Amino acid sequence: MPRFHLIAPSGYCINQQAAQRGLQRLVAAGHRVDNIDVIPRRCQRFAGTDAQRLADVNGLAELTAPGIIVMPVRGGYGASRLLPDIDWSRLIARQRRDPLLICGHSDFTAIQCGLLALGGAITFSGPMLAGNFGAGELNAFTEEHFWRALRHAQFTLEWQGDGPRCEVEGTLWGGNLAMLVSLMGTPWMPEIDGGVLVLEDVNEQPFRVERMLLQLLNAGVLQRQSAVVLGSFSGGAANDYDAGYDLAAVRAFLRDRLAVPLIDGLDFGHEPRTVTLPLGARAVLKKDENGVRLTLSGHPVL
């Protein structure tokens, strides 16, 4: 039975009830859950002091038991403060020797990108304790796709999405759009050519989403990819001032300026319903009249 090891490198978990519900749900399913003391930990808006949260991350290099799933309690802001002091070399060496299955999203994207950029280490962009496993009702789609990604060395996702017909392959990478943009110009931004870049965000109005996408475009990141795949961008609906300018307009504007395929509609991100994606794995993306297929392989599994 897989063993979960909790970390809290980002924001304080304000919804303690959800975190406890997630913990109880995992235990009831027969899983051992370690390091639960991080759940109520708090310092200002963060889930502990910088030193405590850094110790969560650096301590992963010391874990030795097999079949460990590392999962943050939640996202929020805080991981960016830790990046200069993470012991990347030791953590990457641990991942090369016997990979931990590290899964999270949102603010945690910063650490996931660092592992990929500095050592090619694959992590999973997917559920976290409070927001997903601690939801009032655990989404069956999310749970099934979480275990599918962690248990199958190759798996395929299918969905209906807009975009041009294409068949491309490359390294899957990306995650939260705001965090990715915040890493530009730093050592923790992956330099990937010919990849399949997946992006999602939450609580960002259309103009903010466009501004961040244009930063990636103007920096040459988007056009170096084989394809760009958009997940969910909820919680930032257009308002009266936008006068019809919405996320559909953002996508259309970007497609006019981007030569590589832009595919949308993937259930991925800050929603109850989300897939789990192995960042750094090999991806084969096909879009035709039947829909979109994304086949992933080369990632560590249980």
TrEMBL record:
Query: What keywords were assigned to this record?
Result: Carboxypeptidase, Hydrolase, Protease, Serine protease
LD-carboxypeptidase C-terminal domain location, by residue?
A: 169-285
- All residue ranges annotated as the LD-carboxypeptidase N-terminal domain in the record: 6-126
Task: Name the top EC class.
Answer: hydrolase
Q: Name one GO biological process term.
A: proteolysis
Give the EC number(s) under which this enzyme is classified: 3.4.17.13
Matching InterPro entries:
Carboxypeptidase_A_C_sf, Class_I_gatase-like, LdcA_N, Peptidase_S66_N, Peptidase_S66C, S66_fam
Instruction: Give the family per the record.
Output: Belongs to the peptidase S66 family.
| Protein name in the entry | Muramoyltetrapeptide carboxypeptidase
Tell me the organism: Intestinirhabdus alba
Give the lineage: Bacteria, Pseudomonadati, Pseudomonadota, Gammaproteobacteria, Enterobacterales
